[in-house]
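User: Some background: our group keeps a shared notebook of sequences we're curious about, and every so often someone picks one and asks for a predicted structure to add to the entry. Today it's my turn. The entry only has the sequence so far, pasted here. Could you supply the structure so I can complete it?
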Amino acid sequence: MTRKLLTLTLAALAFGATQAANINWETAVSATSSAGSSDQYIDVYAGAAATVAASITYGTSIGTGTVLSIGASLDNKTFSIQIGENGVYTLTAHGANGTPTITTVGSATAVANATQTVALSIVRGSNQSTTVILSVGGVEVAKIENHTISMGPIKWTEWGRRVGNQDAYSGDATYTVFTTDQALAAADIASEIDRLTNPPAPDPSVPEPTALALLALGVAGVALRRRVA
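Assistant: Of course. Here's the predicted structure to add to the notebook entry:
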């Protein structure tokens, strides 16, 4: 009986740990803002990865320019998301002084009076070969693959700001920006940002995983005490 209770207790603890685990997101901006930057929450060296995601709410008309970027001192470790004519998203790799070197036109457009999840996922190889993926609304829409960059970390994240000779976004928009040290699939990014920005209300009729684990420990403790007595 005691062995069975201990087995059930361990299972409950494992269940609680699984339910409580989630991706370690850092908030680059905790409240919506029209433009900003951060060098505190991204530090991608060779062999590392990261995802920078923004929940962007656009105004009544779609402008053009940079909505999200990552980089380091405007060298060839800089990548940005632009909105071009007709609201089409593009992914750009920059060289010295922020000059665009590669531009890949995406398959998605910005939508007026709507909120979209826009993200960059970065994977750096040990040989400085880097792949950057642009996703919009949980769908991969553009990629720059096996792009060789210089040594040193990708340090900063910016939103709604000018990058080199690429203008800042010209329309009205607010951003809530998150980063993590994992390269995530497009669908996972969208569901995670939705979870972060629209947390579900707790159901009082459903016990928390932690509460289940504590209850199991209590039951096991009582059983062991009775057996010893």
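Suggested note for the entry: Helices lie at 2-20, 186-197, 209-228. The first strand starts at residue 26 and ends at 33.
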